[in-house]
Amino acid sequence: MAVEVTPQYGLTQEQLDFLEVIRQMVVEKVTPRAAEIDETAEFPEDIRELFADHDLFGLPFDEQYGGTGTGHLMLCAAIEEIAKGCASSSLLLAVQDLSSLPVRLFGSDDLKDRILPRMASGEWLGAFALSEPEAGSDPGAMRTRAVRTEGGWILNGAKNWISNSGVADMYVTFAVTDPDVKYSRGITAFAVLADSDGFRIDALEHKMGMKGSPTGQPVYEDVFVPDENVIGEVGQGFRVAMQTLDRSRLGVAAQAVGIAQGATDYAADYAGERIAFGEPINRLQGIQFKLADMETTTAASRELLYRAASMAETDDPALGKYSAMAKLFASDVAMDVTTEAVQVLGGYGYVKEYPVERMMRDAKLTQIYEGTNEIQRVVIARSLA
Ligand code: COS
């Protein structure tokens, strides 16, 4: 009997076909590179080129700017596929989404024309510079200052934990423009080009996981930013950041779902091959129960993510709450599932010849960045008040 292919969650057949191309590409070209990327902690230029050649950087963008115009759900599904094989590589797409969202949501037409096509093609990478050494969960406490000058602003300060440090061409930078009012009205967002005088990247971090994605400290010393590069209205930067994060957290959730599925698939295959007590260990209930819980919680994460992603298509007022719930739930599941995958592999799980210890290290970051899971709980609880 012929099986009818049902378009899932509103993805068209064309999008499902594109997803299949991505899936093949990941299996053939990305997954085999994952261990080396982790080991060397080098930015994977070859994967960046591969993604650019396959139009993957276009996924977050409208067609008008050279993007695929395929929406949030398709972007999340693509991030998930890539994260199954290599979470660091999936961050290339997630950060391109995060760093372009302020311009897409709030930028002038001129700014969009100058920046978005270059990001959609992959010619430019972006970075989102909000956090500071003393202002991570509480971005309202930032100290980076922007002072008015003729034709623009002079920026001074330093950011911290910024993805794509050193490889980005454009840094969306948040700075205090009016210290005398509440931060929600005294911060402004700027598009700072990497080749601006006075801009540099200080030390890069040595991280536990996601090692193929450089994280560092952008420093601004009397950096001039022209008025044309202000994103949105002066004084509205905090809102720009919050509305961006309401959408970009979907990308972290997608990454977490991908990591969890990758670990589940690997552990299930291993359990079918590994013999103990005279039979494959997947016949032992102790292992079956683990695999069943891993598959079930990963599937539940995906449902919540896809629901949240479809709300982004319609700008649903509950999007912020749902993206926080998807990020919270999926990243906690990814941590649990990858820890269990290590346990299923036993001693083999703990060594680098097998990918699950890397997946466990990568999963940890999804509980921390783009708002710790404690912050997600604050966002969710406030929506109930
Ligand atoms: N969309 C639009 N506006 C928002 C908003 C949102 N999602 N969330 C808050 N705001 C507005 C509020 O309406 C308020 O406006 P007014 O001052 O004009 O009334 C203002 O922003 C301040 O809001 P609030 O008082 O809720 O801010 P808090 O300082 O208490 O912080 C949290 C709120 C904790 C949610 C915020 O600081 C946050 O998200 N922190 C985590 C940041 C983060 O994710 N960092 C990771 C690094 S970035 S990759």
Could you explain the architecture of this structure?
Residues 1-6 have low confidence and may be disordered. The protein folds into three domains: 7-120, Acyl-CoA dehydrogenase/oxidase, N-terminal domain (Butyryl-Coa Dehydrogenase, subunit A, domain 1); 126-236, Butyryl-CoA Dehydrogenase, subunit A, domain 2 (Beta Barrel), CATH 2.40.110.10; 239-384, Butyryl-CoA Dehydrogenase, subunit A, domain 3 (Up-down Bundle), CATH 1.20.140.10. Helix 1 (13-30) packs parallel to helix 4 and helix 8 packs antiparallel against helix 9 (285-313). The longest helix is centred in the middle third of the chain and has 37 residues, at 237-273. It has helices spanning 13-30, 34-40, 45-53, 71-85, 87-106, 109-121, 183-186, 237-273, 285-313, 319-345, 356-366, 373-384, and strands spanning 126-129, 145-149, 152-158, 162-163, 170-176, 187-193, 199-204, 215-226, 230-231, 275-276, 279-280. The protein contains twelve helices and eleven strands. Strands 2, 3, 4, 7 and 8 form a five-stranded antiparallel β-sheet that branches. It has a four-stranded mixed β-sheet with strand order 1-5-6-9. A two-stranded antiparallel ribbon has the order 10-11. Strand 10 (275-276) and strand 11 form a beta hairpin. The protein is elongated and about 80 Å long. The protein starts with 12 loop residues before the first helix and ends with a helix. With 385 residues, the protein is α+β, with helices and mostly antiparallel strands. The structure holds coenzyme a persulfide. Residues 128, 130-131, 136-140, 182, 184, 238-239, 242-243, 245-246, 320, 369-371, 375, 378-379 line the site of coenzyme a persulfide.
